[in-house]
Structures are given as C-alpha cells and as structure tokens.
Amino acid sequence: xxxxxxxxxxxxxxxxxxxxxxxxxxxxxxxxxxxxxxxxxxxxxxxxxxxxxxxxxxxxxxxxxxxxxxxxxxxxxxxxxxxxxxxxxxxxxxxxxxxxxxxxxxxxxxxxxxxxxxxxxxxxxxxxxxxxxxxxxxxxxxxxxxxxxxxxxxxxxxxxxxxxxxxxxxxxxxxxxxxxxxxxxxxxxxxxxxxxxxxxxxxxxxxxxxxxxxxxxxxxxxxxxxxxxxxxxxxxxxxxxxxxxxxxxxxxxxxxxxxxxxxxxxxxxxxxxxxxxxxxxxxxxxxxxxxxxxxxxxxxxxxxxxxxxxxxxxxxxxxxxxxxxxxxxxxxxxxxxxxxxxxxxxxxxxxxxxxxxxxxxxxxxxxxxxxx
Length: 372
Description:
Distance between the termini: 73 Å
CATH architecture of the largest domain: 2-Layer Sandwich
Structural class: alpha+beta
CATH superfamily of the largest domain: Peptide methionine sulphoxide reductase MsrA
Helix content: 25-40%
Number of helices: 12
Number of strands: 17
Strand content: 15-25%
Strand order of the largest sheet: 7-6-1-3-2-8
Largest sheet: 6 strands, mixed
Order of helices and strands: HHEHEHEHEEEHEEHHHHHEEEEEEEEEH
Radius of gyration: 24 Å
Shape: elongated
Number of domains: 2
C-alpha cells in the first residue's frame, strides 16, 4: 500500500507525456556497470541481503561482472511459507531480500557487502526511506562463519569511519529458507522502467544514494576493473579455504586456523608456489587469532597494495611471484619492532620446520636461526 501511495503522490507531479517519454527512455536504473567477465557455472555461490524494497536492490548487483542473477524474495523468517500477501500483512517475520548468485573468482563476497551498503541508509532502523515496517528493515543474512565475519567487519569499519552521526542499524543474522517472490516482482526495474524510476526517486532512495554513496560506488568500480581473473587449475591444488583466501581475497576464521598459535621454529612459505615469506623468529601473539609477524624475511618478494574494501583503507599484502592474497599490514605492532604487524591468513601459508629445511630445499635459511 505504501508503495502505491508513493507512486500516486509522485505521479500527481508529472506534467504531460513529454516528461513521461524523457524519463522512460533515459532514466538510469542501475548505478554502475562493469565489463562482464566470463563466470564458471560450477563455482557459483549465493549471498543474501535485505535492503528494503527488493525492486531497488537487484540492479546494482546484476550490473557487476561475476554476478549471474539477482532474485527478489523473502528471507530471514522461520515460517514454512512466505509470499507477498503473507509478508505484507505481517503474518511472517520475513524481510524483503535479494538472492545473489555470483562467482567468487570474479567478485568477492566482501565487494558484494560493500555494494549492498551503497544502496541503503544503514542508520534507518524502522525500514528504508518511504517504506516502513519490519519487512523493509535491513540485514545481511550469512551462510558461513566467513560471511558473518566479513559482514561484522564491514559494519565495525563503517562505525569507525564516523561517516554517520547515528548508529548502524543493519543486522547480521543467519540465513533461513529463501522464498522467491512472485514473478511480477522479478526484474521490476527492467519491466517497468518508468514506474520504477518514479518510485525510487519518490521514496527518497535515489537522491540519498547520489548524495551519500556515489564516491564509494566509483571507488568499488575502479577497484573491480583492476582485478585479474585467477587460474582455475589452482582449485586442483588448493583446499577450499586456501583457494578462497589466496585467490578470492577471503579471510579465514580467527583462532580456528593452523598457525595462529604455532610456536615451532621454522619458516612460512607461500602455499601456492612455495616462496619463503616469514620466519618464526619474527612471529608474535597479537591477540587477533591470526598469525602475526613484525617483518618479512630478507629477500622475500611481497607486494603492498591499497585495499578499499569494507569501508576502510588498508594495506593489502600479496606475494609477488604467485600474486596470492596473504593478509594485511597494520601499524599497531610491537613498538620495539618498528610497530609493524603483518596479519596473515594461515590458509595462505605452509609451515616448514627448521628440521625439514634441508629436506625441502630451504637449507639456505637455516643460518637465520643460528644468528638469532
């Protein structure tokens, strides 16, 4: 009903068919378009976001390389059925949401989360823009612990950025059964360009996005366009978590990885090509749940890049030879060790004990343990 009221109010302000023709043929329905990259149908995953009216959430995702579909539906509730009539009447605790099918080798979950925030007012707790009520409230619905961590990190970073005066109202909740919405709701932004454009502008969403998020959207678009697709054959060599971390910029769960509390003497090499990266002599307990080092090994080939995902600017650490994502570099490490903290994913590393250095052809590095 509220959507209809908004449409009626805006339509009253329309004068003549000339304005109709102009808007119906020239109004943009998505915010950004990136060149499409071929996706691997066997590698597709799904992500779920509730951002108010689902009409307004499909376009931004479908415009991205690596996204194969954005489906409107109902999510987050515990009832055994959900449809527009039940949800709009408040007879279920579902929200309007979208299901995103994507190839993580082309676009990461973290980037999807970033894009999600650029389509909403994350501080509005009672709905979104002109639509009020629980079914229009915002939530990131996670399927894995990694997705939960990425979502919570994004919210924490957004809070820390002080971009908004109000608290972030977006919930992070486990995904329940997703119910696809009625066919007339699917791709509404394509089927009814004029009506959709009037609704998006009349609700206040369009103006808010342009004023608040245009710079961030351009930043994401530029970062995505600079990425290169990774070799698919690495899937045969790496485990799922190793592939997600090194090839898709993923992050493993803290305190539940092999090396965060490893106290053996030895070196850590790139899991992809075996390049030496870090020594146990430079490892310390940072309390974060990930392996942390004060410096890289002498002669180690790493690359530092600016990473603007998750609403913050960080320094990403990658291996130079294999171009593996390793982790990030922070300046909150031990003061007596130049304050550096290389926060690295265990999944990006392989540990070689000192006793095995000769056997694995890393004998030249034994001397660093003799000296220190």
